[in-house]
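// run 5 | inverse folding | seed 20
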């Protein structure tokens, strides 16, 4: 067996482990926006689920289930009443409101 074959056999497990770790960390961060959000006054709620569905309750109105899509830091939600767009900034979402274009949603912890 030449030196190259011996080296490649030793390196293969290391490369496989690095690829697996990269896949795990790469996938886990992509859904960090999933969760429950509340408005600054804690009266309204927006929930983003990992399956692409969402739920919105705002100003006492239950808009029920909808769907959402995220591309980069932009988020688009669609409900029976229509659709809206917002921007994800860390643990907050700006927008996504039938009444207030600059509404701020804060992710709940716990």
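// decoded
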């Amino acid at each position: 067996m030449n030196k190259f074959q011996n080296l490649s056999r030793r390196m293969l497990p290391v490369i496989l482990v690095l690829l697996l770790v990269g896949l795990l960390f790469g996938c886990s961060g992509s859904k960090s926006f999933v969760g429950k959000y509340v408005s600054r006054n804690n009266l309204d709620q927006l929930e983003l689920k990992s399956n692409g569905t969402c739920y919105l309750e705002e100003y006492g109105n239950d808009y029920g289930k909808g769907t959402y899509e995220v591309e980069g830091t932009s988020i688009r939600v669609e409900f029976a009443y229509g659709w809206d767009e917002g921007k994800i900034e860390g643990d907050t979402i700006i927008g996504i409101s039938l009444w207030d274009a600059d509404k701020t949603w804060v992710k709940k912890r716990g």
